[in-house]
Each structure stands twice: as structure tokens, then as C-alpha cells.
Design goal:
The chain is of the alpha+beta class. The chain has helices at 3-15, 29-33, 52-64, and strands at residues 34-44, 48-50, 68-83, 86-99, 102-117, 120-130.
Length: 132
């Protein structure tokens, strides 16, 4: 996997949640980016572990029911290591939007593990930490 491919997959992941300007977020894209058995974990401020489907559905609701609008998140820094059919990326990110009518901003760290499959590169796991 080239660094360009890692960058593109990561940007595709972040872009799945964008609902700025009334855009419908493409959270189903997450299923195409992850292994079906992928693991997603949040380590803060609370702890939770999700399957891909468990991760997608609450976010779809939040991003489409009017509570969270003008939302986007983006990487601000990253470190990527690629070895054969494995890639690891740790990235700092920011996010912003309007939650229940109130503007908000946040930041955190995401760690992604990528693997090469017969169908192409996929995300095997994601762990993240939102700064309080």
C-alpha cells in the first residue's frame, strides 16, 4: 500500500460523516472501507467497542435526524507506517458542527490499522480518543 492509498482511505473514512450544507452523510461507505469483522473502539471520554454495523447506525441517526448539522471532521497531523500487507496510522483530528442548535468544536486521536485483502485494502480496526 502506498502512502497515497492510505491517505485516500483515511480521507474517505473522515468524509463519510460530512453533512455540511444539507448533504446526506454516506455512512454506508464505512462498510466498504472496513473488513466485515472490523473492530471499532472508543477509549475516551467513555469506553465502548463496536462492530462495524453497531458503529454505523447510531451515527446515521445522529447525522440525519437534525440534532447534529454542519458536521465534519478532518485530520490535522498523522504518522503512517507501511510494512508489506499492513499499514498503521495514528492521526490527530479536529471536528466541528452544530449540536442541538449550539456550535461545537472538538479534537482527538484516531489509530487505524489497514490490511491488504484479496479484494484490496481495508481497515481492520479503528480506535479513537476524543479530548474532553
Amino acid at each position: 500500500m502506498s502512502k497515497i492509498e492510505v491517505d485516500a482511505l483515511t480521507a474517505d473514512f473522515f468524509g463519510a460523516f460530512d453533512n455540511r450544507g444539507g448533504k446526506t452523510p454516506d455512512v454506508d461507505r464505512i462498510r466498504r472501507l472496513f473488513l466485515p469483522q472490523g473492530v471499532i473502539a472508543c477509549t475516551g471520554p467513555g469506553f465502548a467497542v463496536y462492530t462495524v454495523d453497531e458503529f454505523i447506525e447510531p451515527r446515521r441517526t445522529l447525522l440525519t435526524d437534525g440534532r447534529l448539522t454542519e458536521f465534519c471532521e478532518w485530520e490535522t497531523a498523522e504518522r503512517t507506517e507501511i510494512v508489506g500487507g499492513l499499514a498503521s496510522r495514528t492521526g490527530e483530528y479536529r471536528k466541528s458542527g452544530i449540536m442541538n442548535g449550539e456550535p461545537f468544536e472538538g479534537a482527538g486521536t484516531k489509530h487505524l490499522q489497514f490490511v491488504r485483502t484479496p479484494e484490496g485494502w481495508r481497515i481492520a480496526s479503528l480506535a479513537w480518543y476524543d479530548q474532553p
